Amino acid sequence: MDAETARVGTVYRPVVPAGTLCRMLAVIACYFLATLVVGAAFSTRIKRVSDYLIAGRQLGLALTTASLAAVQIGAGVILGGAETGAAYGLWPGMWYGLGCGGGLILAGLVAAGRMRRLGGVVPIDFFAARYGERRWVRLFAWLCNIPSLLGIFAAQVMASGLVLSGFGFDFTFAVLTIGAVILVSNVLSGMWGVVAVDLVQIAVILVGIPIAAAAAVSGGGAPALGEILATPFIPRGLWTKAVFLITPFLFSISVSYDAFIRYQAARTPRVAQWACILSGLLVIGASFCAALIGAAGKRAFPAVADGSVLPHVVTTMLPPVAGGVVVAALLAAAMSTANALLISLAGCFSRDFYNKVLHPGAELDDLPHGTRNARLALAVALVLGVAAALRARGILDTIIIFNYPYMGSMMVPLLGGLLWARATSRGAFAAMAVGGAIGTAAFLAGAPGPLHGWFNIDLGLLIAFAVSGLVFVVVSLTGAPSPRPAGAGTVSGTVGAGAVTDAPWSAPRTP
Description:
Layout: E1 5-8, E2 11-14, H1 18-42, H2 49-54, H3 61-72, H4 75-88, H5 90-110, H6 112-118, H7 123-131, H8 135-165, H9 171-229, H10 239-252, H11 257-265, H12 269-300, H13 309-317, H14 320-358, H15 370-389, H16 395-401, H17 404-419, H18 425-446, H19 460-478, E3 490-492, E4 502-504
Antiparallel strand pairs: 1-2, 3-4
């Protein structure tokens, strides 16, 4: 460890001159203020709960692209990518970003346009249209989705707190401050404010992260860059780790809550389709820069811990204002994803539980106190997520393992139902049961608790997908096509800009 770095617990804090630190913090404070102002400005657009959750289905290509990219360019892609790049090299540092970016591109090619054309608010609206409306499925999806979204949200807040604690702030104070900024911005403006802030945050990320990458490369020179690029894509002994980081979001983003809600917020199916493809390319580009910071920075500062390479590059190799922009980009990456996840949690509660479990005969926009309850759900989720962030350990592990129960159970029935006309409700329910059991077992083996370490979870979700898919196909083929239940087969939510209503479902056309 070099003389300019002091170790405090597991966090390495670079010693920054007071004047430099003040200028960097001024840039960060301006970023926080801009976030709050934008949120307040867009709060006037909230007239009904669908405005709050899906922005009235009025987002154009720029805002939809920025929002989809901002969901994925979070702590995992930037901070996790830099740390993995420092530990294993450039290409391993991109694994998680390739999974997220590739997942968005795949969603654009096969799912986004079709899902937007069918309408709805959350993925289970499609499930209900395809296999019939059932309250227990709504309740199951809601309960499974809570740990999935909360775990990822907690990881983003934790990462933001670590960034600020690296500059001398108490970690708990930093997490609470981040939580307060996110709370005010989201409660005020819902999806409209989130996507407007996402556009600002993506701009900051796309400026700040390449600046840091250029600085890291300059420390080692052109010969070092050639050696970095020549590292193997999968180093010896790391193939299961590559599967663990690439697979989950590569296959699951197409039917995830955060992506589905943004499909529905897009103005047209074509906007949703192209926004996914463009945002996927942005995610891969940001991932390359983050991994390059880690790999090149580790060569320039071999004594610095892997997780501290990125902040060390920022504080030692950049002028104060540029450093402030990069730190703001790090915060933007984590906070933009946190914003998106809170809206997804509010949508999951409002649509799956409050509407379809408690008030199944009502339309979403006609429910009493719908917007107020969505805001309340968002606030409660934030409090729980902040509490979890104060106890969580390991950004990428927290992001991925909390995703196992929901995606293990729901990915195959949702994506299979979209792409395969022969799929049946019996096949979907069997796949849910098997995939959910495997996903939950892998989650319990990876989360702290009595079953932790029971088996290697790197391949857990891939196994859940494979077995669930096999069961889905076999059960669907061995039985007669399911008759459509009376009253089922509708996607709730029209594709227009009006209120959320029930529209007949029909087989999707290729976009």
